[in-house]
Design goal:
With 414 residues, the protein is α+β, with helices and mostly antiparallel strands. It folds into three domains: 89 residues, Integrase, DNA-binding domain (Double Stranded RNA Binding Domain), CATH 3.30.160.390; 86 residues, Orthogonal Bundle (DNA polymerase, domain 1); 193 residues, hpI Integrase, Chain A. Helices cover 47% and strands 10% of the residues. The relative contact order is 0.07. The C terminus is likely disordered. It comes from Oxalobacter vibrioformis. Belongs to the 'phage' integrase family.
């Protein structure tokens, strides 16, 4: 005659104290709680195998697994047994499937892809450190919190669409960039046999490319002269003052100027060599005598560190994106008059229309993609002697404007 087991109660389980030896508290149907001498309490269930032998199925630790949850696990195991399925083998298969799902999650695949692209492989150049960090930051901020844990084989187009629309709410440009990253990750997953297709939707209607923004720029020589004289009156910190004075002479992108590093500056050769993040290409900026003089003044203050223009808060980072812009505003120069990017438009216009410099030399110095007649991209040293001459000519012209030389409006050249 089978022994009748009285079901356990939550209070009984909670109050069960450890003894010198492990003991069991039975709940019926093969389910029992083992109380160990060290105080742990684990749920187990006796399961008969196909050969008639008993084996033990574990459901987890109390109180992580409650009495109610343990009973649900018991019923599920009994249903499997009734259907001719071994519950222990089913659990092992489930654990293996869960492990495979975790190993093939979007986050895991994205990080493997990111590592390969950052370090470079047989088909691509390594990413710059700055761009690598930017990509990982975008994924970590906008994508991984939502679909990072989903296996790449299970992410459907609506899942990506939902994520991308959230991003597009505040920036369509960011959404388009992140869609491209997600598509590249899914292509990698397909290549690795982890997904059957790239499910990132096109979303041409929902994600409209942003309108091209033309940055405000002072291009009339008379206005340029006033701007340069205003810059000389700046009373802020010395590094920002130096950056503000150098900006018109070198006309690089604001992000490149603020992140300039002393290791890339050769004062003897009067050159600044660095990698353009936007195009991942090497670039050389010839430094006019005026720029070298400013840098020699700055070097005793920041030359011991990494950056020419470190942040006011920490020397481990360059000054903020808005440092130049804020300095211009402090000088009373409105956003409709000039921005950090505006120095590039100013140089391009006047070098071409006033000084008559060859357009290809200007484009080279702007670090734009310039190709030879055969369609090949020029290397960074192309026309370097001519560009050095141009940069000195440009610096001397700016100084003459600032000193009050006779100024002719651009309209006279058109």
């Amino acid at each position: 005659m089978a022994r009748i087991v009285k079901p356990l109660s939550p209070v009984q389980i909670k109050n069960a104290k450890p003894k010198e030896k492990a003991y069991k508290l039975f709940d019926g149907g093969g389910l029992y709680l083992t109380v160990y001498p060290h105080g742990s309490k684990l749920w187990h269930m006796k399961v008969k195998q196909d050969n008639g032998k008993e084996n033990i199925l574990s459901f987890g630790k109390y109180p992580d697994v409650s009495l109610e949850q343990a009973r649900k696990h018991r019923e599920e195991a009994r249903k499997l047994s009734a259907a001719g399925i071994n519950p222990i083998q089913a659990k092992k298969a489930q654990q293996a499937a869960s492990k495979e799902r975790a190993e093939n999650s979007f986050e895991v695949i994205a990080r493997v892809w990111h590592e390969k692209r950052s370090s470079g492989d047989n088909h691509t150049k390594p990413w710059t450190l700055g761009y690598s960090q930017k990509v990982l930051s975008r994924l970590s901020r906008y994508v991984l919190p939502w679909i990072g844990g989903v296996p790449v084989s299970e992410i459907a187009a609506p899942d990506f669409r939902k994520v991308l629309l959230k991003i597009a709410d505040h920036s369509s440009a960011e959404a388009i960039a992140i869609k491209t990253l997600c598509s590249q990750i899914m292509d990698y997953a397909v290549d690795m046999g982890l997904a059957t297709g790239n499910t990132v939707p096109k979303m041409r209607d929902a994600l409209q490319p942003p309108k091209v923004k033309h940055y405000a720029a002072t291009t009339e020589p008379q206005q340029v002269a006033e701007l340069l004289r205003a810059i000389d009156t700046y009373k802020g910190t010395f590094p920002v003052a130096c950056a503000l004075k150098i900006a018109p002479y070198v006309f690089v992108r604001p992000g490149e100027l603020r992140a300039a590093q002393w290791a890339d500056i050769d004062l003897e050769a009067a050159e600044w060599r660095y990698t353009v993040t936007k195009t991942d290409t090497q670039h050389i900026v010839p430094l006019a005598r005026q720029v070298v003089a400013i840098l020699k003044e700055l070097h005793p203050l920041t030359g011991y560190g990494r950056y020419l223009f470190p942040s006011a808060r920490t020397e481990e980072r360059p000054m903020s994106d808005n440092a130049i812009l804020a300095a211009l505003r402090r000088l009373g120069i409105g956003k409709e008059e000039m921005t950090g990017h505006g120095f590039r438009a100013m140089a391009r216009t006047i070098l071409d229309e006033v000084l008559g410099v060859r357009p290809d030399l200007i484009e080279h110095q702007l670090a734009h993609a310039v190709r030879d007649p055969n369609g090949r991209a020029y290397n960074r040293t192309a026309h370097l002697p001519e560009r050095k001459k141009m940069m000195q000519q440009w610096a001397d012209y700016l100084d003459r404007l600032k000193a009050g030389a006779d100024i002719i409006s651009l309209s006279a050249y058109r």
